[in-house]
């Protein structure tokens, strides 16, 4: 072995020169095998080169090299191996004894454990059967519960109890679907559960759609009912105010019973509007109201969609549909006049927001306050634009008033639900001037028609109701005593007709101004009332006086009418104050002068002018006066007798219809005119000269006229009778001066101011010159009294001379 080993060591050095490549390959192969690497490359290379023998040779060489190593290892451990074999041999007997012992134990164990194993197998089999039975029972119970839930769900679906059906479906899905042992049943449930939910969603959506259609009709009726209740409440307030005003007017009576009666009626009126529980009678969130105001379908649909997890989608769907409904409610038909459709238009909107307010308060989060406010702002903007457009087209005051009243009722109704209505009231206030202009125009036409129909005759009233309707209703009576019938009033039919027109104007104006957001509007009503009286009625009366009055009786009737209208104007302002809720004492503070002054003055001037024309006809008889009479007349001249007869007849007729102040002013004007006519006759060119006898005759004429004035003391006061006399002052003072023994006293300022203050010195000078007589009979001296004439003549000459110097 050692020689072989030496040979292996020497051979490479000898063959290195012959086959170095094979040696190198052999080394690589040995290294690869030692490293446990793959020999595939060597095999492929050997077969590729067609020299597998070389590879085999190398492998054999490697095996021989390893055999020597094995031999060395075996040689090194041979002794230990022998010792180990000896130890094994010594253990063999022990192993045999152990084997026999184990065999005996096994036999005993098998004999003992056999029955136990049989029992154990029976137990395990029974346990398995029990487990299977229990599992089957639990699955059966689960299926029974599932069947019950399915049956209950079908029952609720058939009864329309969708929420309970959904709860059953949710229980099936969460508790039983994953635990269902039957795959067929599980597939059926997985298919049917979405179908049931879709079915429920379709049904509640249909109910909700039907509710959307129905609620539009309900909203219109609801709005009409709410606005009607607001109108009834307003009417009760008006009735209470009327009774309060009546109670104030009868303040001398006991007020206790009146107060109790007012309270009782108020309670009776409110009991019909409010329900027993104090609510507004429109129904609650889920029940039926007076008009079927039922929100149950809506809340049911909302609840179902919440259960389905579709809450946000339903809220959006609800808001969009209600917004579309509101937009359609804004449409104003061009085929129907707005006057006929305005109540339906506003009632629909009112009902819409009453419903929304109820939903906001009872519907949870279905709609937010912000969304309702946005809808209301849109509605207010649209209503304002509609009102602006419609008001701009209207040319009838009554139409505008009707719409305004309904809009104000709409505002009162919706303000109860917290909606701001100031913008609507601003639109109404904006058209206040237009309404009053239209109202003034209507009244102008009515007054013109009433005046055109006047026959200038005193009004005959045959029944007490006529007296109440035409006199008492306008407080035109001068006494609280009801006259006997038939009663002839001092005024014509024009007065009550015009009073009715003015009263209607006041009531319409107050109706427009009230309930419009403005608490104190009396000044506005008073302003337009002043315009009606001073511009419309006054101008119409002036036109009537200037165009249609042609006789004394007509002028007297118009003057009488004016006096009655003066009392009526006091009533108009009191009536306006009462309707405006202003105390009369405050209204009296702002009273202005009589607004029909121009017409009254024109009527009195017309009457005075016609009377003067009549008197002028009698005064032409002054031409028949003998200005150089030999002796004075004792019974007055012819003209004054005619004038006296006419004046007495005139007064007896006029005092039946003309008030004393008017009669006094007219008669004073006529007497003043007579005085001017007398003075004018003395100044006129037709009278060249006159003597004292003629002056004494004129003095008798003036005394007759003064006597006529004194005779009116029964009709007038003493002061008024004296004022009648002052109308004759110029003629009286001139005659007194001409008959005075000292006419030069006229030059004394004190005496002149006291006795001749109405005389003009130029007139005195002219008349005095005509009294001069070359025969010294200028002052009507008689016989033996000639000695006294010189001082009078001298005084008169002095007066004339001084007056000429002054002139």
Automatic annotation (TrEMBL):
Location of this chain's protein in the cell: Cytoplasm, Cytosol
Pfam families on file: EXOC6_Sec15_N, Sec15_C
Compositionally skewed regions (Basic residues) per UniProt: 1-10
Domain named Exocyst complex subunit EXOC6/Sec15 C-terminal: residues: 424-770
Chain intervals for the UniProt region annotation (Disordered): 1-22
A Gene Ontology biological process term: vesicle tethering involved in exocytosis
Cellular-component GO terms for this entry: cytosol; exocyst; membrane
Domain of life: Eukaryota
Primary site of residence: cytoplasm
Designated name of the protein: Exocyst complex component
Species of provenance: Salix brachista
């Amino acid at each position: 072995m050692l020689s072989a080993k030496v040979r292996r060591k020497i051979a490479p050095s000898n063959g290195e020169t012959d086959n170095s490549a094979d040696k190198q390959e052999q080394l690589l192969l040995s290294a690869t095998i030692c490293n446990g690497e793959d020999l595939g490359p060597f095999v492929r290379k050997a077969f590729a080169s067609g020299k597998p023998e070389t590879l085999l040779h190398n492998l054999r060489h490697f095996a021989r090299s390893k055999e020597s190593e094995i031999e060395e290892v075996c040689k090194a451990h041979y002794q230990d191996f022998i010792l180990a074999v000896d130890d094994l041999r010594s253990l063999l007997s022990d192993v045999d004894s152990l084997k026999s012992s184990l065999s005996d134990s096994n036999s005993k164990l098998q004999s003992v454990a056999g029955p136990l194993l049989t029992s154990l197998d029976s137990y395990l089999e029974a346990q398995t059967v029990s487990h299977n039975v229990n599992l089957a029972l639990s699955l059966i119970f689960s299926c029974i519960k599932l069947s019950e839930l399915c049956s209950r769900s079908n029952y609720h679906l058939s009864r329309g109890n969708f929420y309970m059906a959904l709860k059953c479906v949710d229980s099936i899905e969460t508790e039983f679907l994953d635990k269902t042992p039957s795959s067929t049943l599980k597939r059926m449930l997985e298919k049917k559960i979405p179908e049931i939910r879709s079915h429920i969603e379709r049904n509640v959506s249909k109910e909700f759609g039907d509710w959307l259609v129905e609620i539009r009709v309900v909203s219109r009726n609801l709005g009409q009912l709410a606005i009607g209740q607001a109108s009834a409440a307003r009417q009760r307030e008006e009735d209470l105010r009327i009774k309060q005003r009546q109670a104030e007017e009868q303040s001398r009576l006991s007020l206790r019973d009146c107060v109790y009666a007012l309270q009782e009626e108020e309670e009776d009126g409110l009991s019909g509007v409010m329900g027993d529980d104090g609510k507004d009678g429109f129904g609650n969130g889920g029940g039926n109201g007076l008009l079927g105001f039922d929100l149950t379908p809506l809340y049911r649909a909302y609840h179902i969609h919440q259960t389905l997890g579709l809450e946000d989608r339903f809220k959006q769907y609800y808001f969009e549909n209600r917004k579309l409904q509101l937009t359609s409610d804004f449409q104003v038909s061009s085929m129907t006049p707005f006057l006929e459709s305005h109540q339906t238009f506003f009632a629909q909107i009112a009902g819409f927001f009453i419903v929304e307010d109820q939903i906001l308060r009872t519907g949870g989060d279905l709609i937010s306050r912000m969304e309702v406010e946005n809808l209301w702002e849109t509605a207010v903007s649209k209503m304002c634009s509609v009102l602006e457009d419609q008001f701009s087209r209207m040319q009838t005051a009554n139409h505008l008033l009707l719409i305004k009243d309904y809009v104000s009722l709409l505002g009162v109704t919706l303000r109860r639900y917290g909606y701001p209505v100031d913008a609507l009231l601003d639109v109404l206030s904006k058209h206040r001037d237009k309404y009053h202009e239209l109202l003034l125009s209507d009244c102008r036409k009515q007054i013109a028609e009433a005046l055109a129909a006047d026959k200038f005759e005193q009004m005959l009233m045959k029944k007490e109701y006529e007296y109440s309707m035409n006199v008492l209703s306008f407080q035109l009576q001068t006494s609280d005593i009801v006259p006997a019938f038939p009663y002839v009033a001092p005024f014509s039919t024009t007065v009550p007709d015009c009073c009715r027109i003015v009263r209607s104007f006041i009531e319409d104006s107050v109706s427009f101004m009230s309930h419009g957001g403005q608490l104190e509007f009396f000044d506005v009503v008073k302003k337009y009332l002043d315009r009606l009286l001073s511009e419309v009625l006054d101008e119409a009366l002036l036109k009537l006086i200037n165009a249609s009055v042609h006789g004394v009786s007509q002028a007297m009737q118009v003057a009488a009418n004016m006096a009655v209208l003066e009392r009526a104007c006091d009533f108009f302002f009191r009536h306006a104050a009462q309707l405006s809720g202003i105390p009369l004492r405050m209204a009296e503070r702002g009273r202005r002068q009589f607004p029909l002054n121009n017409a009254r003055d024109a009527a009195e001037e017309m009457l005075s002018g016609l009377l003067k024309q009549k008197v002028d006809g009698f005064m032409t008889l002054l031409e028949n006066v003998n200005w150089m009479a030999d002796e004075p007349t004792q019974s007055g001249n012819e003209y004054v007798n005619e004038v006296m007869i006419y004046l007495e007849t005139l007064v007896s007729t006029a005092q039946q219809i003309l008030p004393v102040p008017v009669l006094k002013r007219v008669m004073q004007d006529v007497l003043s005119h007579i005085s001017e006519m007398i003075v004018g006759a003395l100044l006129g060119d037709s009278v060249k000269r006159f003597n004292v006898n003629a002056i004494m005759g004129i003095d008798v004429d003036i005394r007759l006229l003064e006597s006529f004035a004194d005779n009116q003391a029964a009709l007038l006061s003493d002061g008024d009778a004296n004022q009648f006399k002052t109308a004759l002052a110029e003629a009286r003072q001139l005659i007194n001066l001409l008959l005075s023994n000292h006419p030069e006293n006229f030059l004394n300022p004190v005496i002149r101011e006291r006795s001749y203050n109405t005389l003009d010195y130029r007139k005195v000078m002219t008349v005095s010159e005509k009294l001069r007589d070359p025969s010294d009979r200028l002052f009507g001296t008689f016989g033996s009294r000639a000695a006294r004439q010189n001082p009078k003549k001298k005084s008169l000459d002095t007066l004339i001379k001084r007056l000429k110097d002054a002139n």
